[in-house]
Fold this sequence. Notes:
- The structure is a homotetramer.
- Chain A has a single domain (about 5-140), classed as Thiol Ester Dehydrase, Chain A.
- The first copy, chain A, has helices at about 5-20, 20-25, 55-70; strands at about 30-35, 35-45, 75-90, 95-110, 110-120, 125-140.
- Chain A is an alpha+beta fold.
- The first copy, chain A, has three helices and six strands.
- The interface of A and B includes residues 50 and 80 of A.
Amino acid sequence: xxxxxxxxxxxCAEAMAAGDRASAGLGMVLESVGPGRAVMRMTVTEAMVxxxxxxxxxxxxxxxxxxxxxxxxxxGARAVAQHGAITFLRPxxxxxxxxxxxxxxxxxxxxxxxxxxxxxxxxxxxxELRGQSRLTGGHFFNPEEG
Amino acid sequence: xxxxxxxxxxxCAEAMAAGDRASAGLGMVLESVGPGRAVMRMTVTEAMVxxxxxxxxxxxxxxxxxxxxxxxxxxGARAVAQHGAITFLRPxxxxxxxxxxxxxxxxxxxxxxxxxxxxxxxxxxxxELRGQSRLTGGHFFNPEEG
Amino acid sequence: xxxxxxxxxxxCAEAMAAGDRASAGLGMVLESVGPGRAVMRMTVTEAMVxxxxxxxxxxxxxxxxxxxxxxxxxxGARAVAQHGAITFLRPxxxxxxxxxxxxxxxxxxxxxxxxxxxxxxxxxxxxELRGQSRLTGGHFFNPEEG
Amino acid sequence: xxxxxxxxxxxCAEAMAAGDRASAGLGMVLESVGPGRAVMRMTVTEAMVxxxxxxxxxxxxxxxxxxxxxxxxxxGARAVAQHGAITFLRPxxxxxxxxxxxxxxxxxxxxxxxxxxxxxxxxxxxxELRGQSRLTGGHFFNPEEG
Lengths: 146, 146, 146, 146
C-alpha cells in the first residue's frame, strides 16, 4: 500500500495516463501532480481552431477537464466529473501553449469541488473551470495491498 | 440581404463551417440548423477514450459546444460562449454515436442562453449543457448587402 | 396510496407547504403544481431591496428555488437541491410581482435537472435557474399505504 | 478621492449598506471588508426553515450573494451579479450562525469572478458559491472628487 500522498498521486496519475488516449492524442503533457492538484499543458494546434478563427472552447474545456481528473483522482479512489462550469475570459490563439492548474477546493463525503485556472502564453487567464466530482466506489489499487 | 430566417441560419452555418477545423476534425456532422437551433452528431472514437475507459467528458462538451455555437450564430450576428455548465448523466462508450440538439432558450440584449441535450445511441440522455452567449458586434454578412 | 400523478403532486405540495415557513414568510403563493412542475408568485417588497435600489438577487433565487423544490418533490420521493445556477437577465423592481415556472427537464437515477424561468410583471424574463436535485431516500407518504 | 484601497472598500460598503434593506432585514452582519473581499454572518431563524425542516437554500444563497456583492463592489465601481452557481454540501439548521467569506478570484475587463465559502457553526462547509459580476459603468463616489 502506498502511504506517501505524493507517491500515491503519482502512481494514480500513471495508472490513469496508461489508458488516457484522449489527453495524449491532443498533445497534453502532465507537468506535475500531487494530492488534490495537477498541472497540464497543451498547445493549440491548427486542428483545434473553430469557425471564428480561434481555439474551439471545447478544447480549452478538455484541457481543464483533464487537469481536473488528475487532481481529483490523486487520492487512490476513482472519481468522475458530475458537473463542470467554465467561464471563458479571453480567446486562445493557434500556436499558443495553455497551462491548466487544478486545485481541489473541497471534498465532502463522496462529492468534491476542484477549481482549474487555464492561462495563456502571457500568463493571462483564458478560462476558469469549477468541476464537481463524485467517487465511483472503485480504486486504482487494491486497498489491501496497494 | 437574406430575409428568410431558415436560409439565413443555413448561410451562417456554411460560413462558420468553412473555418471550423475543430468540429470537422472530430468527425462531427451538422444534421440540421435553423433559427436558434442546431443538431450535430459525432461518433466516439478510440482517440476520445480517457483513463477510465469511457469517452473523455471534454469531447462530449466539445460536441455540445459546437451545436451551441451553430444555434446561437444562426441569426446573422456573431456570438461567442461566455459561460457553459454541463451535467454528465451517463458515460458514453467508444463506437457510440452521440447526438446533440441545441435550442436557444432566450436572447436578451447582447446575452443569450442556449440549452443542449446530448443523447446516446439508445436515446438516453448522456449530458445536458447550458451555454451563455454574448454577441461580439460582428456579422457574418454585410448587413447592407447580405 | 395516491395513484393519480396530479393528486400526488398536490398532496406532496401540501405536505411540504405545511412546514415551509420560508416561502410563506416571503409572501410566496403556489399558483399550481403537477408532476414535475410548479408555478409560484411573489411580490418584491421594500424589505427585499438591496444597496443598488433593486430587488436583491437572493430573493429572486429564493423564489426560483421554491418553485424548483415543489416541482422536484412532486412524485412522492423527497429531493433536495445539490446545485443551482442562476443567470440574472434584468433587475426586478420593488412592488413588482414575479412569477416562477419550474419544469423538470430530466430525471436519471437519483439525480434530476429542473429549469425555472422567472418573469416580471411585463412578462419579460428576469432570471433563469437550472437546479440539480438529488433524492434523499425519504418519502412524503408511506409507500405501502400512501 | 479615496486612495487607500482598504478605506475605499469600507466607504463603498457603507454606501451600499445604507440602502441594503435586504441584508439588514435578514439579520446579516458585515464582519469585515477589504479590496475584493468581504465576510458576513447570519443566523438561521425560524422564518428561514423550509418544508424539509432545514434552512431554505435560498437564504444560504442570499447570504453568499450579499458577501459576493460587498466583495465585488469594493473598488469604487458598481458591479452586479450576472450569474451565480451554488453547490450545497450539507444542510444548515435553525439557530445556526453561518459565515460567508467572499474572495475575488479574477477581474478581466468588465467581468469578474468571486468565490464565496459558507461555513456552519462547526466550521464545516455548508455551500460554495461562484458568482460572475459585471461592472455597470456607475461609481459610488464622483471619480473626480471621491
